[in-house]
Amino acid sequence: MARFRRNAATLSVAMNTLNLTPKHPPWPSLWMGGYGWDPRGGDGTYARKLRAHCLVLGDSGSANVLLRIDVVSIPRDVHRELRRRVVEVEKLVADSDFLIASSHTHSGPMIGSTHPHPNVLMNLQPADITAVNQSTALFIDLMVDLVKRTVQAPKVPATLHYAEGSVRLGHNRTGVVDTVLPDVPVLLVRNATTTEPVAVLFGYACHPVCRGNDKIFDSDYVGVVIESIERRLGLPALFFQGLAGDIDPDAGGPLVVGEKLADAIVDVLAADRFTAVTGPILTKLTEIQLPFAVDTGDAAVQADLKRKFESRLDGHLGQAEVRHARLMLEQLRTGTVARSIPMPIQCWKFGGLTVLALSHEVLVGYQQLIKDIAVRLGIGKLWVMAYANETQCYIPTDETAWQPGYESSWREGDRLVAGFGSSMLAYSWPAPLRSSPVGTVPAAPGSAQAVVLAACEAILR
User: Fold this and answer.
1) What is the mean pLDDT of the chain?
2) HEC profile of the chain
């Protein structure tokens, strides 16, 4: 799906913000996402409000919609329904011109009931899961209305300006690599008539887990940055999460981490070393399938998985493993076990900037691999986002996938089934993603890393 207009573009902008902090009523559920393995629900209090921002870039009369949301994740069925409502029912925007991004705050509401499954993740029972689904329906309605209001709002002529800052706020938690990403991409939107700034879009790659596992709703360090920029500069600030799958914040809490990132953004704005970003805008949305380490459609593999999951029913690994095993056994029994994991990839190309938006929790090692592709293709400024459109698994690089761990999703002794306490168990999948044979460089054909990089190269072309 792609759209491209060759005529010179006149850009315009409109923006709206919605307070998304759950409150009962009208939210039927105050269950929270982000942590397992026990029930976790909001107690009705919040530290910083959760927000949804919608920014519409008019491009020679056509709308390009950015919707960023303070939730931990959006599963595929919720993403597809939200996209269907916006694109097909309301006809507000073309498919590839609609980009959704989650901040990944771990102190927000649980959205959807598939990946993660609320029973596996938190031992929620049917009535609780019904409430989660009712809140999800409310969430979709709110997002569709926000997009509709913003698309239909009056727009002002706009110019765009891009620069990059740098700050180190986190560490790599895998113990396999020490890579972090200090980049702070900043896109400044100005009123083309008055030249006054009207909004700033920024990114960073770090898990919003400063608050920790409690019952208070909080947009985490993301909300601190947004509030700080609004307070200091009087500008709406929109955050877009980077390749943060294996990056956790350093000590200090939301205020310390958030204010340091806000300082970096203010420094970029003060230095005023921006390059112009222009239309027309080329947009494309594609989808690939991420392969599991085993062929879950093969009868022998299914028999092996059945044996392994049945062995967990005695609870020797823990009750979350029991709940996951029961779900996997039911899927094997009914023939509904997944064969692969879909991964939407989206690209917006401006004059002077390319935005590549990847779904899921992509590990930071992909940043340099993708930038190497961009250099080879002669692409200039590149902003890589993750947690875009839907978030249903971690995507480790081969280097991480070769070692047992949470992100690689296997444990010592068995690479072919979702490991106990691992991310694939949390997200309710049967097995890890397929990696290259250990030591293989570049990634072997058919591995998850090779599939992802091939798709990135194709869409960047």
Assistant:
1) 96
2) CEECCCCCCCEEEEEEEEECCCCCCCCCCCEECCCCCCCCECCCCEEECCEEEEEEEEECCEEEEEEEECCCCCCHHHHHHHHHHHHHHCCCCCHHHEEEEECCCCECECCCCCCCCHHHHHCCCHHHHHHHHHHHHHHHHHHHHHHHHHHCCCCEEEEEEEEEEECCCEEECCCCCCCCCCEEEEEEEEECCCCCEEEEEEEECCCCCCCCCCCCEECHHHHHHHHHHHHHHCCCEEEEECCCCCEEECCCHHHHHHHHHHHHHHHHHHHCCCEEEEEEEEEEEEEEEEEECCCCCCHHHHHHHHHHHHCCCCCCCCHHHHHHHHHHHHHHHHCCCCCEEEEEEEEEEEECEEEEEECCEECCHHHHHHHHHHHHHCCCCEEEECCECCCCCEECCHHHHCCCECCCCEECCECCCCCCCCHHHHCCCCCCECCCCCCCCCCCCCCHHHHHHHHHHHHHC
Q: What's the pLDDT at 4?
A: 35
Q: Under a CB-based contact definition with an 8 Å cutoff, are residues 245 and 358 in contact?
A: no
pLDDT digits (tens, 9 = 90+) for 19-67: 999 999 999 999 999 999 999 999 889 999 999 999 999 998 889 999 9
What pLDDT was estimated at residue 43?
86
Task: Give the pLDDT of residue 61.
Answer: 81
Q: Which residues in the chain land under pLDDT 50?
A: 2-8
CA angle 363, 368, 374 (to 5 degrees): 125
Given a contact cutoff of 8 angstroms between Cβ atoms, the answer to whether 51 and 219 are in contact is yes
Domain ranges of the chain: 8-154, 158-278, 286-298+330-460, 299-329
Q: Which pLDDT does position 1 carry in this prediction?
A: 52
pLDDT in tens, 141-157: 999 999 999 999 999 99
The pTM of the whole model exceeds 0.90:
yes
The pLDDT value given to residue 44: 85
* DSSP β-bridge partners for residue 292: 433
The whole-angstrom separation of Cα 93 and Cα 289 is: 25
Supply φ then ψ for residue 83, to 5 degrees. -65, -40
Nearest CA to 38 among 316, 312, 320? 320
How far apart CA 207 and CA 323 sit, in angstroms, is 26
Distance between CA atoms of residues 30 and 21, nearest Å: 10
